[in-house]
Amino acid sequence: MPADSLRALLARSIDYAGMFPPCSLGLEPALKNQAEYVRSPDAWMLGAFVLSAEQFDAAKQLLSPFDAQHPLRVAALGPKTASADAFLKRSRNGRGDSLVIET
Questions:
Q1: Per-residue pLDDT tens over the stretch 9-36
Q2: Comparing C-alpha atoms, which of 37, 39, 3 is closest to residue 17?
Q3: What angle do CA 25, 15, 83 make, to 5 degrees?
Q4: For the whole model, what pTM was predicted?
C-alpha cells in the first residue's frame, strides 16, 4: 500500500488514452483494458478514459463491463471550434440534458 502522501498526489491522476498513439487500439479493446484497470489494485490512480465525443454512440454498446462500483469515467475530446461557447453548443447538439459538461 503506498504512503498516504503518494496516494494524495497520484489519486485519479492517470488518464487512459489507449485509442491514441502509441497504443492506437480500437474502441472495443481499449474499453476492455479500461474495464480491467478499474478493477485492479492500482485503480485509485486511474483517472478518466479519453474518448472522442464522436465515439460516444459506439461506446454505448460496449458499457456492460462497467457498473456503479467500477464506473467508466470519460475525458471527452470535443470538436475543434473557434470559441468555448461554440464548443459547448456543438457538443450539446442533440443531447439535451443527457450530457453534463463541467467547465
A1: 999 999 999 999 999 999 999 999 999 9
A2: 37
A3: 95
A4: 0.79
